[in-house]
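Need the bound structure for 4'-deoxy-4'-aminopyridoxal-5'-phosphate, inputs here:
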Amino acid sequence: TPHAARTQAASHAASQAPNDLDAFWMPFTANRAFRARPRLIAGAEGMHYVTVDGRRILDGAAGLWCSNAGHGREPIVRAIQAQAAQLDFSPTFQYGHPAAFTLASRLAELAPGDLNHVFFANSGSEAADTALKIAIAYWQARGKATKTRLIGRERGYHGVGFGGISVGGISGNRKSFGTLLAGVDHLPHTYNRAEQAFTHGQPAWGAHLADELERLVALHDASTIAAVIVEPMAGSTGVLPPPQGYLERLRALCDRHDILLIFDEVITGFGRLGAPFAAERFGVTPDMLTFAKGVTSGTVPMGGVIARAGVFEAFMQGPPHMIELFHGYTYSAHPLACAAGLAALDLYRDEDLFARARKMEKAFGDAVQALKGLPGVLDIRNIGLAAGIDLAPAKDDAGKDAPGKRGLAAIESGFHDHDVLLRVGGDTIALSPPLIASEDDIAALVDRVAGVITATA
Ligand code: PMP
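Answer from helper R.:
Posting the output first, comments after.
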């Protein structure tokens, strides 16, 4: 009977709900606040998550910017299962397995220009630290061992390794962790609300901020600088598309001063901006790019670095002691991740999901920008299938701004009251639905976000 089925489903869900909510020390989450009203997810399918109590909630964030093909996709599930049965693990130090080479070739084909050599890691953080280490070692291989300095950018996010937080520019992620890497400097971020508010796509203002690299070169001298790392579109800080002409200028300055340019494409890779990589969308080719997340559509952890031929060749033809890169992870090119990656790339190709995101960009942008005018909306930015919505901060009891409080309220309100999963940084909602989103899904997403904004104002 329906009643028996409901009872059974409820007791199944209850059996899945954990009693102890403190043993798992949660990442970027205050356990104490979470446990007061937990948000527990038990399943996923297509555009939706399913909560432990059986509610379907719309995924407005592609999980964490990663489930680009949507959830529970059969071809990826099957590929992972088959790989686990055939080859569960294989070392890649001094050994190899076919899927690692095949996936690397596929990624090299997908990346623009001569970005042809793939080093595998397991996350975006590892990818960032790998790229920074390769940059420093590259100059050593070329006999320019003084070039070790790394330049990041304010508000940048490159994961949570010591390299990543050192070049990163989100102060909250840095300030509890001591002195960090030496020899790091930062470019200014590119956001200026007075000049850029409510722009679709790339803002017209801000290209000149790339020239700040000249100031850092004057300060430190190019002979000490190894690399500049930026997100082509800053994601975690709240979706900041690059000003028109900015990346081009950064590329030209890096060329002029013999500095490697690294794009962190952990968010922008695999279709988020309607192209395989942001490098292609913006027509600027870095010397290395990092990827993660979407490479397996979020199903199995994987990240990595794609380097231009010249970077790889500097090692192959460098001093004998540098032909081997003394870097790698037990799980570099893990067979399950490679299988998931190959299946995800097939799915992206067969369903033309990157082009689909490009086609959907205008409808998505128009729908999101229509939230302008709701209470406490300070700015909205959109590009590809990504959008940042800045909300005015809540006040504390003394009437002072309490940054982050409204953002957390938006997550709670979304999950419990509006059936939508949101990603929030501070008081900015970042929308990044799976690339399979239909126009109806986008309409539903924006409608639910409107409900959240109103409820938290
Ligand atoms: N770089 C960028 C640009 C990212 O957005 C992220 C994660 N959001 C990372 C690096 C870190 O990736 P991970 O969490 O997989 O280490």
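Comments: The chain has a mean pLDDT of 96. The radius of gyration is 22 Å.
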